[in-house]
Specification:
heterodimer, A: mainly alpha, three-stranded antiparallel β-sheet, extended, B: alpha/beta, six-stranded mixed β-sheet, four-stranded antiparallel β-sheet, 11 helices, 36% helix, globular
């Protein structure tokens, strides 16, 4: 290195042409990489935007209902209903026994001609029924009522119906007899055969009970397994086998868990079919490995110096775990749990196997009642022939997405809230 | 200036301790300690006594087994699944590896301070109060407050933190964190304190404070300290053990080890020929 001139040669090497082009190539490579990365991010953002915008655009109609005004002359109708009967406890029964749909068809025909026979459907009859219970004196007069139109007319009013229905809709519209209102029924009612009468409340309640059962089983079992495997279990062939099995379990397709649930919970244990109890247990099987894996990783990432510190002041193994390791691992465990639960909340396939795809028109009151859940409800509606279900499907998807966002938001909140820095 | 001469000029704290009269029973007595990590032998037949009122320093090059030996003294090696310890260690004549000895109590009696300051990610108060709380050493809030205050005072940290006891222990500086760890250790009133290179992650000023603290604590506890820093060993200890490749080469009065080592390897190490 002491040869004369060698340092001068080294100096010029940094400034000659080949070095310049190498520098340029390096910059060009970085620019290229950034562009590709940006393109990848944009593409995924585009897909997400496309999904959200189509859902919102199609689904927003599901939250509204078209109402039509109709004069109903109760005293002169064929309705045999005593106002006194509506004040007692048997009001619902009395309403159920009355042919409200017939009255509505009759009134619509009188007011708008024979074409309007099917102007109203079950949703209108249901609304009329609850209005009569609220105000039985209505039966004594001739009233003009705004009631939700049948699905076909509603679709026509939104510009997507049969020619005949569209004609009727435009006639009514010209006479200002149609209006569009927020459909509260969509959030408070359950499944129905008439798309104008359906709601997601039953499915929401079903989802709630199912996830509740899943949390109550999967969280304690998963966390305890993670703690035991990480802190107490000896390292030998058996624990290796268990670890491999748990990792495999997390990768098993969900429909297999459905078959397992069908075989064990329904056929062997004879638990009630279609119930959130069984659905929750099945989903717990599916969620548990996710919680175990997340929990073990979180526990593993607690710095050993903290364990040493606690041991060195004379903390027992249990005290080290419960006073130091678990609190520090909690954000990781909770994040993993919520991600697992969000997956369970959106799961359809295993629930089809245990009968949660049944048509259930009454919301469940407990974990043993027959129920359906949101994603299954979406699946069922997407399968329906009637046009009216299209927007209801999209609207239900929006409700599900909002729930997912809330859960993920909760995960982020909990992570930030409990995260300790050292 | 030869290292020996340099060491002679260093202040020699507490040499008077050596002048204590009469034969004394050691606080801890280790006999023929061997440690295996799997098939590898990390420590070969080490025998050392650790006395009250004295600081015993373990020196030696990296990987010589001095930290391993220290961790035997409060059975911290139990936490390493592959580690196997043979030999006999006594605390006040009791075998610490016997089934009668509860490891949790042992670790409360033989406290430990680590190389890297490792306060719990909790408040300063909670850091110190944790030990007394789990051992039930305080009957009420007031008593606990007293223990915390006394421990922090003895660790020389009270004046710096008394107004912010509820702040996180991890928000302190490195030197303060280490003194907090010492306060946490002495809060459970141990009999022996083991220190594993307590100042190696600290700057010279924080190191000086820790060393000062060691002098002050010497009167109350038997202290064993592992250090890489030979000057530190010379400054703080009265007994020094030199380890090399898992063997105890030489053990004696610090003054003798540094000025008049009996073994060639000790001589080579303290004069900086290796290590």
């Amino acid at each position: 290195m002491n040869r004369p001139g060698s340092s001068a040669a080294a100096a010029s090497r940094w400034t000659d042409g080949s070095m310049d082009s190498r520098v340029r190539r390096r910059y060009a490579a970085e620019r290229r990489f950034r562009l590709i990365g940006l393109a990848a991010v944009s593409l995924s953002a585009l897909f997400l935007a496309f999904l959200l915008i189509t859902m919102a655009w199609r689904g927003v109609g599901g939250f509204t209902q078209v109402q039509a005004a109709v004069p109903v002359d109760f005293p002169r109708s064929d309705l045999i209903l005593d106002p006194a009967a509506l004040r007692g406890d048997e009001a619902r029964q009395a309403i159920a026994g009355a042919d409200l749909e017939g009255i509505l068809a009759q009134s619509a025909t009188v007011a708008y001609g024979a074409r309007a026979k099917d102007l109203f459907g079950t949703a209108a009859a249901r609304d009329l029924g609850s209005r009569l219970i609220g105000d039985p004196d209505l039966l004594r007069e001739r009233a003009i009522l705004w009631l939700p139109v049948a699905s076909g007319i509603g679709q026509a009013a939104k510009g997507d119906g049969s020619a005949e229905a569209e004609q009727l809709a435009s006639q009514l519209e010209q006479r200002d007899l149609l209006r569009t209102r927020f459909n509260l029924g969509f959030l408070t009612q359950s499944d129905a055969t008439d798309p104008s009468a359906v709601g997601v409340w039953g499915a929401l309640k079903g989802s709630f009970f199912t996830i509740l059962v899943t949390i109550l089983i999967a969280f304690p079992v998963g966390v305890l397994s993670a703690v035991y495997l990480e802190e107490f279990a000896p390292r030998n062939r058996w624990t290796d086998l268990i670890e491999v099995s748990i990792n495999n379990l997390a990768a098993v397709p969900s429909i297999i868990f459905g078959l397992l649930g069908l075989a064990v919970f329904l056929n062997f244990m004879h638990l009630p079919r279609s119930a959130p109890l069984v659905g929750g247990m099945t989903l717990a099987l599916m969620t548990m490995p996710v919680i175990v894996i997340a929990g073990r990783n979180a526990i593993k990432s607690v710095p050993p110096s903290i364990r040493d510190a606690a041991l060195a002041v004379g903390a027992s193994r249990m005290q080290v775990i419960f006073h130091h390791v678990l609190p520090l691992a909690l954000p990781g465990i909770l994040t993993g749990t919520i991600i697992g639960l969000a997956r369970a909340l959106g799961e359809t396939a295993p629930l089809l196997m245990i009968g949660m795809r049944a048509f259930i028109a009454t919301p469940p009151d407990g974990i043993a009642d027959p129920a359906t859940v949101l994603p299954v409800q979406i699946f069922l509606w997407s399968d329906e022939v009637s046009r009216g279900f299209v927007e209801k499907t999209s609207a239900a998807i929006i409700v599900l997405l909002i729930f997912m966002l809330l859960m993920n938001g909760l995960a982020i909140y909990l992570r930030n809230r409990f995260e300790q820095r050292w | 200036m030869t290292p020996e001469a340099e060491i002679d000029t260093l202040p020699q704290h507490g040499q008077a301790a050596d002048e204590l009269p009469g034969p004394r029973t050691p606080k801890m007595r280790a006999r023929d300690i061997s440690v295996f990590y799997g098939d590898k032998q990390a420590l070969k037949d080490v025998s050392i006594d650790i006395h009250d009122d004295r600081v015993t320093a373990f020196i030696g090059p990296s990987g010589c087994g001095k930290s391993t030996f220290l961790r035997c003294l409060n059975r911290m090696n139990d936490t390493i699944p592959a580690a196997r310890v043979t030999g006999r260690i006594e605390l006040d004549g009791e075998d610490i590896n016997s089934s009668k000895m509860d490891v949790v109590q042992l670790r409360a009696r033989v406290g430990m301070v680590f190389q890297k300051p490792n306060p719990f990610p909790k408040s300063i108060y909670e850091n110190v109060a944790y030990g007394p709380r789990i051992h039930g050493l305080a009957t009420g809030r007031q008593e606990l407050d007293e223990i915390v205050e006394n421990s922090l005072k003895r660790a020389g940290l009270w004046d710096e933190v008394k107004d912010r006891l509820q702040d996180s222990g991890t928000a302190l500086s490195g030197g303060q964190q280490q003194r907090l760890c010492i306060a946490r250790t002495i809060a459970v009133d141990p009999e022996v304190i083991l220190m594993d290179e307590p100042a190696s992650a600290l700057d010279p000023i924080a190191t000086a404070k820790i060393e000062e603290l060691i002098h002050e604590l010497r009167g109350r506890y038997a202290i064993a300290i592992v250090t890489h820093n030979m000057q530190q060993a010379a400054r703080v200890s009265q007994r020094t053990a030199f380890f090399h490749l898992g063997e105890l080469i030489e053990y004696g009065k610090t003054k003798d080890i540094f000025t008049n080592p009996r073994h060639q390897r000790t001589q080579d190490y303290i004069t900086g020929r290796y290590g």
